[in-house]
Amino acid sequence: MGKKQVVVGVDIGGTNTVFGFVDRDGHILASDKIKTSNYEEPEVFVAALYEKIMVAMPKIGYDIEIIGFGIGAPMGNINKGTIEYPADLPWKGIIPLAEIFKKHTNLPVIVTNDANAAAVGEMIYGGARGMKNFVVITLGTGLGSGFVVDGKLVYGHDGFAGEIGHTAIRPGESNRDCGCGRKGCLETYVSATGIKRTVLKILADKLEPSELRKFSFEELDAKIIHDAAKNGDAIAIRAFEHTGRMLGFKLADVVATTNPEAIFLFGGLALAEDLIFEPTKRYMEQNLLSIYKDKVKLLLSELSTQNAAVLGASSLIWSEKEQ
Fold it and tell me: 19, 180, 182, 297: most buried, per Cβ within 10 A?
């Protein structure tokens, strides 16, 4: 019996980098992760990641053959194999990721935007199967977005189409600094980091008691805020309401631009479910042109937080192999 062919799908996030060995049917045979933020140099990061992949490979339990590496990353450019000026990663400027990776392997390496990878994963293995027009919003350290229009992923002229996380929210409503160097970007509100900033702002402005007051900014995370909101903490609930309001405003613009059948929310913040979905849907509907009202589904990704971008990134290699 021959070796089972697999692709290594990699999802590079601002906090963690997750990888998995994915077969042609979308089964993740094994997975692991490393901490992205531990590596100040991309060359050292890639070396550590490749070593971790090689160490994990024998643990699968039977013979496999890696046929390529599909990588999703913030500001990943599929045309050039680069990551360019990422706001949420420890490296600056233009990082030739595929070129660095190919110092360790002769196999194909494809790099794309992490949210585009999640959109492909949703289309092939998740809730968007059979859909021709949909959007995936990834809510992690930052906010990513992948657009599928008429059955095709939108890349744009330079490979960077669809960065709504770095579009401004309503004028006059935000002066928050963004990691991209601009002010008022949507992800400064709508992301795991953004909701932390919102909580601290509300805590500073209000005197009401909250269990969140005992946490420093470094200790606080989206899950703590989520748990507090479920326990009835008024500050946490208000933070989710405000986050949903900002996202709903922006999604109304997205609907007017692309007319999707559905918008999928993916990532840790999306797991708060009704806490984020209810205000987002309410504010989106309030701001939609009448021809779009009550027509767009707002759905939770059907793939796990770790899986969508890993599966989507892996499918880049499978689709290239079969062309």
Answer: 19
User: How many Cβ atoms are within 10 Å of 229's Cβ, its own excluded?
Assistant: 22
- For residue 171, the model assigns a pLDDT of 61
* Cα–Cα distance measured from residue 39 to residue 296, given in angstroms and rounded to the nearest whole number: 41
Indicate the pLDDT class of residue 140, thresholds 50, 70 and 90. Answer: confident
CB 67, CB 317: distance < 8 Å: yes
Q: How far apart are the first and last CA of the chain?
A: 26
Percent of the chain with pLDDT over 90: 66
Closest CA to 105 of 66, 60, 48: 66
- Give the gyration radius of the chain's Cα atoms: 20
Q: What is the pTM of this model?
A: 0.86
Yes or no: say if 312 and 122 are a contact pair by the CB < 8 Å rule: yes
Q: Quickly count: other Cβ atoms within 10 Å of residue 167's Cβ.
A: 16
